[in-house]
Amino acid sequence: MKAIIQKEYGSADVLSYTEIDLPKIGENEVLIKAKFTSVNYADIKKRLGNKGQDKFPFLLGLDIAGVVEEAADGSMFSKGDRVIAFPKNGSYAEYVVADQRLVFKIPDTLSFKKAATLPTVAILSYMLLHEIGQVKETDTIVIHSAAGGVGSTLVQLAKLAGVKTIIGTVGQVEKVNYVKHLGAQYVFTYEEFAEEVLKLTDHKGATVIFDSVAGDVSRRSLECLGLYGTLVQFGNSSGKAGALKTSDFHSSCRNLKGFSLGTTRKHAPERLAPVAEEVIDLFAKDRISLKVAKVFPLSKVAEAHRLIESRNYEGKVIIKI
């Protein structure tokens, strides 16, 4: 089968389109013929070697939309089932294997292309908003990187939940209108957001801030996070750790919560099924959707990575297998 493999860390040029063996399933696993996969920023970090030591060669990719080709005996899945999944050894390939606890059926009304936009970003966003941030209608929330996959999904979910004030941040002013169209009442750049949030809230600050950028953005978030507020930290796309002190929290009664979908997939996969059911239904009924920035063929994954790194896109970049 065709796949994209990586034999060393480096630029997008290290991604090689080649032929590899068809994977075999084990106990409680499912073989899936992939239709689409998505490109996530975590793929870029792993390609560069920023996510720990890997055994070469390996496949990148977190999620797929496709059709079950084979299932283990006694499985809840059958050949022909339409699914989304988190494969165990990467998703940039024609066929993938996944633990059946990380495979979720999708209805015929949901296209594979649309379904491919949702596994990582929508499941993560739903958990961030409802389980980790525990956002209420009366809250004032800030969503960093609001034009990206997770950010744009968070904005839509917050609007759907009736959140009072939704504030987005972007790295480029050209993305402001896109984020407002999704449902944010206010959108600011990273340079100005802290001051603007304080102005909007009469210096009371935001209730919940969702931060996947880290670095200086985390520090500035604390400048506009109100008393008893919560900073939800779930990534560091800036490549820099945020400098936080215990004194930033105890006297102001504020909270810092961390979350990783990767950790949850590995250690608590049972938490994902009910969330997946919710978001699949939302996408199938067009209550939320993600703009597809561009579709690349599998052989052009390197070009997709370059687009992600340029940050000159809105929504999701996906790969047609």
From TrEMBL:
Pfam family, one: ADH_zinc_N
GO CC term (a single one): cytosol
Organism: Oceanobacillus limi
SMART domains membership: PKS_ER
Keywords, comma-separated and alphabetical: NADP, Oxidoreductase
Enoyl reductase (ER) domain: residues covered: 10-319
GO molecular function: mRNA 3'-UTR AU-rich region binding; NADPH binding; quinone reductase (NADPH) activity
Protein name stated in the entry: NADPH2:quinone reductase
